[in-house]
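Risk register update: the risk of archive-format incompatibility is retired. Evidence:
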Amino acid sequence: MTGAQQSRWAAAAMPVTALLFLWVFSWGHVMAEIDSANMTALQKHVSFFDRNKDGIITPSETIEGVVAIGCDIAFARDFAARVHAILGPKTSPVDVPLPHLSIYNEYIYKGMHGSDTGALDANGRFVPSKFKEIFSKHAKTKPYALTHLEVKELILANRDPNDPQSWVAPIKEWGLIYDLAHDKNGYLSKDSVRGIYDGNVFVKLEEERKSTQCVTWQNLTLI
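Archived output:
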């Protein structure tokens, strides 16, 4: 992602003071209950950012995960601030001490928003028929990929007219994934879109980034 693109997505992010981040990063917590063998697609999606796999995603873990998929640290901090301010209170158990900024994977379904594709149901489970509709309705240039314009069309087609507040999240989510995962010809493949829902696209992006860094390092040592 270019600096200009990251600045565009970060522009609407909620600012959080350095003091608050230090407070959150040093906050201790116990392991959350999470059955990794029976995760929903949505739980797998967010589990990528649960770097220590304890069922609880802290802002620092989200920052680490966002950097791992190819974003710069400034964007990652702004992204984490916005996401945790929204999802932390929604997914935190009532008996967890304030400030409720960590995201609990067990309750991530409570953070689902409207104006989405329907490829995840209300509990975060994958819905194959709705996933197929993404391409049958919007993949007009190639049957198994989406162009930038087709992604925009997809977002607009799924807007809930009765819930305007839900329009912003899909723009940011799809925009970020498109910027990071489209190929050199500008296509977002079906496999990449499928990987959005279960988090596999994040794993792939992290692996590609590590591979690129390794090649760059090797090239530098040969000069």
